[in-house]
Design goal:
Bound molecules: zinc ion
CATH class: Alpha Beta
CATH topology: TIM Barrel
Largest sheet: 7 strands, parallel
Strand content: 5-15%
Length: about 300
Amino acid sequence: MHRHLSRDTQLERLIFPKPGFPDDWYWCNLDRVIAYMDAHHISHVGAMNVMSTRSMLDSRMRRAREAGRSERDIAEARVFLREDMRQRVREMNDWSLAAQAREPRIRTFIALDPTLFEDASVDELERCIALGATGVKIHPASSQHLPDHPALLPVYERCQEAGVAVLACSTPRPNPDGVAYAEPLGWRPVLRAFPRLRLALAHFCDDAWDERLEMAREFPNLWFDISGGLVDAQNPATWRASMLATQAVRVFRKVGVERLMWGSDTVYDPMPSVRQILGLPFTEDEQEQLLSRNAMTFFGLR
Ligand SMILES: [Zn+2]
C-alpha cells in the first residue's frame, strides 16, 4: 500500500532523488517495479498518483514576477498554466491506468486536486473509472484544501456508489499559510456524509495517532495505512513515525486490525517495516491481515 510509482527511471531520479544512487537502484518505476516485487514476494502494489501542481504553479508565477512581467501577463499565463497542469494530471492518470490494465498487480489510485479541477473533478473521476481506477489519492496538504472541499463531494458520492477507494495523506503539519489542511479530524464531515465510502487515512503511526484512534471509534468505514512505520531501536522517530513498536499490538487491536494496512510510501527499502510487523506479538492471522488481506479487500480484489 501507498507507493508513488514513476513512469521511468529518469523521472523517478528527478522526483524522488537519492543522492549517489546509480540508475539500477531506482526500482519504483514502470521499468523495474515488477522485478522488484517478484524478488521480494510482493503480490500487488497500491500506486498513488500525486503531482505538486500547486507548488509548480506558484514557483512559475514567482519566476514571472521576478522577471518583471506585468500583472496582466501573469494573470493570463495563470489561466494557460492551470489548463497545462490539468492536462499533465490527466496524462499521469492515463499512463498509470494503462499500466494497471497491462499489469493488474499494479493498482492505480488517480490524482485528483479539487483546487485545480474544480467542478470538473467528478468528470476526471468518471473518465478514470471507465479506465478501471482502483482508487483516488487525495492530498489536502500539498493541494491546500480541506477534505470537504465542495468539488470533492460529488467525487466521494461517486466513489461510494462505484466502490472506488480513497486514500488521503493525513499528517497534520501546518502549511506556510498556517492551516493544517490534512488534519485527521477534518475528515469528520466527509465520513458523516458518506458512511459507505471506503476511505483510508495514511500514516496511522505519526504523532496524530490518538486523533485517528478517536476517528476509528466514531466511523466504522474508516481505514488506515501504517506507512511511515513504527519506532524501535533500528528505526528512529521521524515526522511520519511517532508510535513505539511496543505499543502497536495494543493500539492496532483497539482500532481493529482488519482496518489497518501495511504501507511504505517513498522509503527506499520497505522491508524493515515488514520485519517490524513480523517481529511483534500479533497472531499469524493478524500479520497476514496487516501485510496482505486488508489491502486486497481495500483494493476491491477479494
Ligand atoms: Zn505518500
